[in-house]
Amino acid sequence: MIWDLHCLYVISGSSYKTSSSQFISFNEALQYFQTADLEEYRSEIQTSVRRSRPAAFWHALFGPPKLHKDLVEERDMFFIMGKYPFRNEEDVHNRVLQTIYKKLTGSRFDCSRFGDHWQEIGFQGTDPLTDLRGAGFLALMNILHFVMDPDTLPLARDIFKLSNHETQNFPFCVMGINLTRICLQTLREGCLNRECNLRQQVLAVINDFYVAVYLYLYQKWKKDHKTVIDSSHVLKDIENQGRKDVKMLLRNLEIYSNKGETKKTPRGEKYLDFAGVDEIAVNLVQRPNDSNQLYDRNDLYSKEQYTM
């Protein structure tokens, strides 16, 4: 077997044959996790915010409604998936990665498991697994849904195009991982409970909310001419918006959809069981005098929650 930088070639007789796996749908990937043994991760999840007694009392009186009991298991599975690691030996895991790469780049062929080509879609280095160490598989599932839904794929590609802009570039997948963290923290704080109760599902709400926050970032980034240096402030703004006004973010997505720029996922659409992610913080910074290279913020600085 010979590994090219971008595509996988398999020796067949005296010629080389390019390999191309089938796209994997969101539900097919999700079904894999229905049969996986996830119980060892259940004790590690945190599904709500720990509050002092006075804060808990105030939250009970004036905070968002409790999640309906029949949705608790779906919510818990969502968080458990965030603890589930990427496994190289699992075909489904690798197909998810390949599908994301091909959908964003338009490539017809699979690419090498390791290589600089992963930086093209916004991972930090040659191995996407290193970016997922704090997010589990959930971050990939969020991106997979974004690129495999024909209604949201055009938006995903528009954002991906902006992420490769000469001056406004940012790491698409790493940014998505940060948005996954925001989605899960928003769910953890109960801010999505009302919408989940209304629609009687958690997964579809999270998927819509993920697209909504990426749309909000895209619009703000483009309109205000943001650059990677502004990432921490933009992400903080998105997190605050998620706490204050989930309805506004979802309404913004609906308005954008109704303009014909992307179609909105029907509210009645039902998914298989899904899981989520514990808190993550994938932080990148630009090192002075090196505008083309991104670094793991944890290797350089601390303090701020996000910086790219």
Report on the structure:
With 308 residues, the protein is mainly alpha-helical. Helices cover 45% and strands 6% of the residues. It is built from eleven helices and five strands. The strands form two sheets. It has a three-stranded antiparallel β-sheet with strand order 1-2-3, with no helix packed on it. Strand 1 (2-3) and strand 2 form a beta hairpin. The longest helix has 21 residues, at 203-223.
Secondary-structure blueprint:
Elements: E1 2-3, E2 8-12, E3 15-18, H1 26-35, H2 53-62, H3 72-81, H4 91-105, H5 138-148, H6 153-163, H7 172-188, H8 193-199, H9 203-223, H10 231-244, H11 246-258, E4 284-286, E5 294-296
Helix pairs in contact: 4-5, 5-7, 7-9, 7-10, 9-10, 9-11
Helical stretch tally: 11
Beta fraction: 5-15%
Percentage of residues assigned to helices: 40-55%
Q: What is the H-and-E element order?
A: EEEHHHHHHHHHHHEE
Note the overall shape: globular
Low-pLDDT segments: 1-5, 8-17, 273-308
The largest sheet, given as strand count, sense and whether it forms a barrel, is: 3 strands, antiparallel
Strands, count? 5
| Oligomeric state, counting identical vs distinct chains | single chain
Radius of gyration: 19 Å
What separation lies between the terminal Cα atoms? Answer: 37 Å
Provide the descriptors you would attach to this structure in a database record.
two-stranded antiparallel sheet, 308 residues, 5 strands, three-stranded antiparallel beta sheet, disordered N terminus, mainly alpha
